[in-house]
Structure to design on (435 residues):
């Protein structure tokens, strides 16, 4: 179990460049299986989950060449389908959530796709019904081995159809889209998720020859094609990382510039931080966060009632930023209700913040009320264990603002989603070491 030691209470300053988006990378990498031609992908983050998926593709027989930092060429012209039945796949396939998106492309191109129950954050139930109901709608036969938790779908040829998804699942929509692009005829997906991750995937697939319309909306129409060709794709900056740096800047009263954020793809994120009282300035495509000398004051709703910050499928606020907004609220002026609607076990990390002196009431597994200290009282350093990626970074932000030296164990969780985070934090003045 890896550990960070963090000496808190130091102001940071400088520039930080966000990595390529993790959740986009997981979709885009799976899409390389849809063609035998070369696909060049740039701005791939060097993080544990993405590297695990690249290793899975390599084990599947995909020819992978590294061209430079974050740039790779993939060619899936000799895929080894026997690997899908191996014990190694049953082990490695469960190492991350994103591996589930191997199924759609494999099913569409080779007529079969298998996957062990995928891993990912332990943040509550993470069902796969949307994915498999989608494949079944396209004509696939589904089987599930309960003992091994092993899923499989098979179909000679998928057939386009109309479907209304039971929920706007991000990975589920990506999976179904990747299956439908090679199906016979027209597929219509209503209640599709439309996060920038998916918009990027659909644009890439269209460059490969797919015919997807409605990109960016919850109604996608896909005219199936026989084959797809190669392309080049560059990942957007990771919007969750961008939000993490905004939270970090506010909470440590630091002046920070987050470089090349792709403002137009940030949706609600800047607005929500502004409602939390954080000053965010747009400078070209950068975000400038000035030093918050006098702290930051949470706004109320127009009628004077307490602000609620909650998640929703895009264009709502992504659930992956709520833990960061929550930790930032502990030093704000005012109070806020954080309502994590999607995941039922993502707020339990607040116990640690309470130990550190934060004023939080966990109302139930989905809701926490935070009463900010307005920097009148610092959080106290402590020893903690990172439960998931975003709670891990939130605890790290708490530790960087706290008085004294904190220890965070299980930092593998943080490394799943943040590239070389300690080096990048040291470059802006943080006192953090990996032990
Ligand atoms: C690898 C990857 O891309 N992971 C992201 C992806 O996970 P993932 O695609 O696994 O998440 P889903 O979108 O399927 O669903 C997440 C959770 O929200 C619930 N749900 C979903 C849609 C909805 O309309 N209502 C609802 O309650 C689901 O039941 C589930 O518990 O999307 C999540 C939701 O943005 C993010 O937290 C994850 O970081
Ligand atoms: C929940 C997350 O990731 P995953 O879906 O990969 O577990 C996340 O990135 O916050």
């Amino acid at each position: 179990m890896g550990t960070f030691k963090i000496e808190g209470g130091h102001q940071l300053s400088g520039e930080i460049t966000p990595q390529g988006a993790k959740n986009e990378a997981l979709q885009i990498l799976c899409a390389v299986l849809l063609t035998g031609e070369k696909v060049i992908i740039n701005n791939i983050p060097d993080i544990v989950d993405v590297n695990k998926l690249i290793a899975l593709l390599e084990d599947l027989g995909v020819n992978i060449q590294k061209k430079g930092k974050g740039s790779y060429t993939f060619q899936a012209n000799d895929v080894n389908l026997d690997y899908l039945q191996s014990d190694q796949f049953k082990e490695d396939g469960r190492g991350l959530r994103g591996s589930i998106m191997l199924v759609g492309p494999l099913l569409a191109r080779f007529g079969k796709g298998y996957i062990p129950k995928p891993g990912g954050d332990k943040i509550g139930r993470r069902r796969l019904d949307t994915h498999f109901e989608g494949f079944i709608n396209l004509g696939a036969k589904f089987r599930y081995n309960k003992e091994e938790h092993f899923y499989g779908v098979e179909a000679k040829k998928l057939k386009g159809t109309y479907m209304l998804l039971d929920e706007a699942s991000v990975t589920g929509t990506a999976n179904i889209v990747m299956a439908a692009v090679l199906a016979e005829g027209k597929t219509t997906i209503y209640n599709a998720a439309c996060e920038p991750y998916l918009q990027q995937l659909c644009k890439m697939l269209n460059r490969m020859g797919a015919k997807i319309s409605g990109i960016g909306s919850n109604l996608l129409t896909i005219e199936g094609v026989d084959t797809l060709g190669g392309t080049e794709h560059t990942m957007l900056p990771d919007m969750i990382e961008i939000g993490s740096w905004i939270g970090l800047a506010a909470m440590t009263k630091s002046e920070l510039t987050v470089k090349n954020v792709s403002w137009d793809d940030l949706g609600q994120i800047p607005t929500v931080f502004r409602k939390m009282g954080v000053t965010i300035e747009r400078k070209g495509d950068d975000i400038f966060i000035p030093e918050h000398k006098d702290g930051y004051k949470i706004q109320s709703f127009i009628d004077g009632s307490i602000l609620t910050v909650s998640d929703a499928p895009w264009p709502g606020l992504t659930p992956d930023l709520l833990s960061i907004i929550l930790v930032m609220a502990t030093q704000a002026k005012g109070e806020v209700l954080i309502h994590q609607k999607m995941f039922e076990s993502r707020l339990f990390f607040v116990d640690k913040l309470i130990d550190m002196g934060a004023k939080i009431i966990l109302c139930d597994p989905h809701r926490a009320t935070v009463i900010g200290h307005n920097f009148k009282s610092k959080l106290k350093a402590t020893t903690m264990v990172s439960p998931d990626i975003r709670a891990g970074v939130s605890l790290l932000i708490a530790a960087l603002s706290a008085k004294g030296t904190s220890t965070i164990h299980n930092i593998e969780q943080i490394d799943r989603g943040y590239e070389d985070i300690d080096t990048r934090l040291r470059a802006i003045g943080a006192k953090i070491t990996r032990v």
Remarks:
- The chain has 14 helices and 23 strands.
- Residues 22-234 form a domain with the UDP-n-acetylglucosamine1-carboxyvinyl-transferase; Chain fold (CATH 3.65.10.10).
- The chain has a mean pLDDT of 97.
